[in-house]
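Q: Could you fold this chain for me?
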Amino acid sequence: MDNTVGSLTRFQKSLITGTILGDGYLRIIPGRKNAFLEINHSFSQKQYADCKFEKLKNICISKPKIRKGNGSRIAYRFYTKQHPKLTEFYNNFYENSYKIVPDNLKLDVVALSVWFMDDGSKCGNSNFYLNTQHFSKDCQINLLKYLERIGLKAKLNKDKNYYRIRFFNSSISKLKELLKENLIPSMYYKIGL
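A: Sure. Below is the predicted structure, expressed as structure tokens.
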């Protein structure tokens, strides 16, 4: 079982994986041993951030708080405690302080759903994207392979100077089917519900 004291549940590991692929950041403070996770969303996504907090609250320091962001942006964020399992994630997902895609990525439906809620978007009825511009092109090519392993075909799509992932039309119904079960109601708009 995954639920021993001090460990993370399988669901929490998937949520953290999706968050790291998306908007979350792991950090290790100089002089400290373990990493912590920062989850930072726009205040308009309060319901989503609160949902993440509820699922991770056993490893969190305090509840999400509002903070002024850049310009007129209002952010809503929280931090986890430093945790040895988060250090393992850090060692897998970061190289020279930059996010990478590890060779042993465990991409399941929960991780995909969280990743899509963080970075997914829909344009019209047939264009579904994962905004992966913060990853290198090689990392994005690896992500395409992981998506294919769960039955989703996609390609890289040039967005100005950067690439992002665009799902093939033939995979959209399967993508919606996989996501539908795990998206929270305030995120249904991302798949047209």
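A (continued): The chain has two domains: 10-99, 109-183.
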